[in-house]
Amino acid sequence: MIAKRIIPCLDVADGRVKKGVHFVNLTDVGDPVAIAAAYQQQGADELVFLDIAATNQHRQTMAAMVEQVSAQVFMPLTIGGGISSVADMQRILRAGADKTAINSAAVANPQLIRAGAEKFGNQCIVVAIDAAWDEDAQLYRVYTHGGQQATELDAIAWAKRAVELGAGELLVTSMDRDGTKDGFDERLYQALGAAVNVPIIASGGAGKLADFTSVFKNTPVDGALAASVFHYGELTVADVKRALRTEGVVVR
Fold this sequence. Notes:
Order of helices and strands: EEEHEHEHEHHEEEHEHEHEHH
Strand content: 25-35%
Strand order of the largest sheet: 1-4-5-6-7-10-11-12
Structural class: alpha/beta
Low-confidence stretches: none
């Protein structure tokens, strides 16, 4: 059985780690390099680093910061934000990332997924999807630009297309649950798991130990990502893994 992954996420803007609710009202959490090093000590399986302001500010992810983070941690590192070309992917991978995450750029140019996968391999291409339930349309709608722009895309259909184009992994955030600590949107991940056959990382809503156990037991996700509960010391990675082992969930 493949071990489930516990993944802290660093949302970065203006060189600092930020956290908000429903993608807004961001507050400062701290220095990304120091926080990354702390998660290394806690035993995190991977680290996701998202430059959440890069796309809206029309600039590239800061490679220098990636180099600093990769010098401090020795676990898989996924970098996203402002990546809009194969050249951007190459720059980030050379700076020390193991995987690149693309969201807005993939929606605008789906062939970027294929181009990246052909050059670097599917395992390096993570398609990030920000989704919120649309009650009128009865679907999970895809949002881009840090959750600020609604698209016409159905998240489940878009996930299938992204995998067909070469995405090796999906990082799917429930905007409805983001920062709420109300638990993961298990309905979303059940639907995704039935639609695609690549690893899925669940993001948005982690608030207590039982949330991690529930999402792993009730959905086919491979990893659970969290920010607030880790950043503010409410839970540690070790706490989560201990609880999961007690419940019979295989972790590293």
